[in-house]
């Protein structure tokens, strides 16, 4: 059911919705694999579409022939490399700055709910000068569960001091929409994010599908 009341807050997924982090993540994987004599230059386009799905998904796509044990070893190497490159080439998606400014002008509290671990989330936001702009930051390990479990969404809503029914959640993955639906939170798919060719966002059940961040400001509940 489409919500009827105006938004009183906005929550964002991080990678692929708020911030374009694909280049940093892919570079971390490239560095990890280079030490094992593997190149991913021909897979960078594919890996970009997987950036919202976490390090393991990216490793599995890069070296599908490797054993699960080898993939986990490479994932840990990727995370070590990511510590160093996190935020170096990350940037806000076009239109996000205008959306944040518009929300600020309306005194709407803002938050982030991400499956990125806190050890990477907060340093990234700090390096980009974004941390102070958000009233809530819920990472993969902030609660005992991660999206699509409702726990992170409920904590973020509590930190925004808003009812879930009055918060818009923006995300670029099916689990984002499922997490919002689990707590009766209006949701919109960020079509500018890391969607793969096989993704079917029209089937995810979101309230809206948006091609650009500034389209939020044209929603009837804005």
TrEMBL record:
<dbReference type="InterPro" id="IPR023214">
    <property type="entry name" value="HAD_sf"/>
</dbReference>
<keyword id="KW-0479">Metal-binding</keyword>
<protein>
    <submittedName>
        <fullName>Phosphoglycolate phosphatase</fullName>
        <ecNumber>3.1.3.18</ecNumber>
    </submittedName>
</protein>
<dbReference type="InterPro" id="IPR023198">
    <property type="entry name" value="PGP-like_dom2"/>
</dbReference>
<dbReference type="InterPro" id="IPR036412">
    <property type="entry name" value="HAD-like_sf"/>
</dbReference>
<dbReference type="GO" id="GO:0006281">
    <property type="term" value="P:DNA repair"/>
</dbReference>
<dbReference type="GO" id="GO:0005829">
    <property type="term" value="C:cytosol"/>
</dbReference>
<dbReference type="Pfam" id="PF13419">
    <property type="entry name" value="HAD_2"/>
</dbReference>
<keyword id="KW-0460">Magnesium</keyword>
<dbReference type="InterPro" id="IPR041492">
    <property type="entry name" value="HAD_2"/>
</dbReference>
<dbReference type="InterPro" id="IPR006439">
    <property type="entry name" value="HAD-SF_hydro_IA"/>
</dbReference>
<dbReference type="GO" id="GO:0046872">
    <property type="term" value="F:metal ion binding"/>
</dbReference>
<dbReference type="GO" id="GO:0008967">
    <property type="term" value="F:phosphoglycolate phosphatase activity"/>
</dbReference>
<dbReference type="InterPro" id="IPR050155">
    <property type="entry name" value="HAD-like_hydrolase_sf"/>
</dbReference>
<keyword id="KW-0378">Hydrolase</keyword>
<keyword id="KW-0119">Carbohydrate metabolism</keyword>
């Amino acid at each position: 059911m489409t919500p009827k009341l105006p938004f009183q807050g906005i929550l964002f997924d991080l990678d692929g919705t708020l911030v374009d982090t694909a280049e940093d993540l892919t570079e971390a994987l490239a560095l990890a694999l280079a030490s094992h004599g593997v190149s991913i230059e021909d897979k960078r386009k594919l890996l970009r579409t997987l950036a919202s799905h976490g390090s393991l998904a990216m490793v599995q796509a890069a070296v599908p022939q490797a054993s699960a044990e080898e993939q986990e070893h490479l994932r840990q190497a990727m995370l070590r490399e990511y510590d160093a490159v996190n935020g170096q080439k990350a940037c806000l998606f076009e239109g996000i700055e205008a959306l944040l400014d518009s929300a600020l002008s309306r005194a709407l509290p803002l938050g982030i709910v991400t499956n990125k671990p806190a050890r990477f989330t907060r340093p990234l936001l700090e390096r980009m000068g974004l941390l102070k702009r958000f009233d809530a930051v819920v990472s993969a390990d902030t609660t005992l569960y991660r999206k699509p479990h409702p726990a992170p969404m409920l904590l973020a809503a509590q930190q925004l001091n808003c009812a879930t029914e009055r918060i818009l959640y923006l995300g670029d993955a099916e689990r984002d929409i499922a997490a919002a639906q689990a707590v009766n939170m209006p949701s919109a798919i960020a079509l500018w994010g890391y969607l793969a060719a096989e993704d079917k966002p029209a089937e995810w059940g979101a309230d809206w599908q948006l091609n650009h961040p500034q389209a939020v400001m044209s929603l009837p509940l804005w």
